[in-house]
Amino acid sequence: DYETKESKKGRGAFLDPNHTHFLLVEDGTEYEYGKEIKFRALLEQKLSERYREGNFTLPQICILVEGGPNSIKTLLETVKLGNPGLVIAGSGRSADVLAEAYKLSTPEEAFNNDGKKKKVPTATLR
Known about the structure:
Helices cover 30% and strands 8% of the residues. It contains 3 helices and 4 strands; from the N terminus they run H-E-H-E-H-E-E. Strand 1, helix 2 and strand 2 form a beta-alpha-beta unit.
C-alpha cells in the first residue's frame, strides 16, 4: 500500500495522484531521500541509448524547476553522464540558487571533462 497526499499520516513521501505511472526502487532503506539518484540517471541513460539509430540516440535533458538539494544532485548526475541540463531561473529554491551562482561565475572559466576550457551557452527568456 502506497499513500497519496490525502491519506498521508506518517513520514515519507506520497505518490502524486496526477501521475499515471511510477517506477519504485527498493534498496531496503527507509526515510532516506536521494538514494535513487545515481540509479535513475543510469537508467535514463540506458533507456536513451536503447533507441539508437546509427549515431542518433534519443535526446535527453534534465530540467530543474524549483527543487531542493536532491534536485541539484539529480541535475549533477545527468550532466556527469554528458547530458544537458536546463535551469529555470525565477522558479524558486534550488533553481534560483544555481542560476545566481552561474551569473556570478565567468562562462570562460568552465571546463570540459578533459580539463580543457569551454564556453557555456546561456539564454535569458523574458
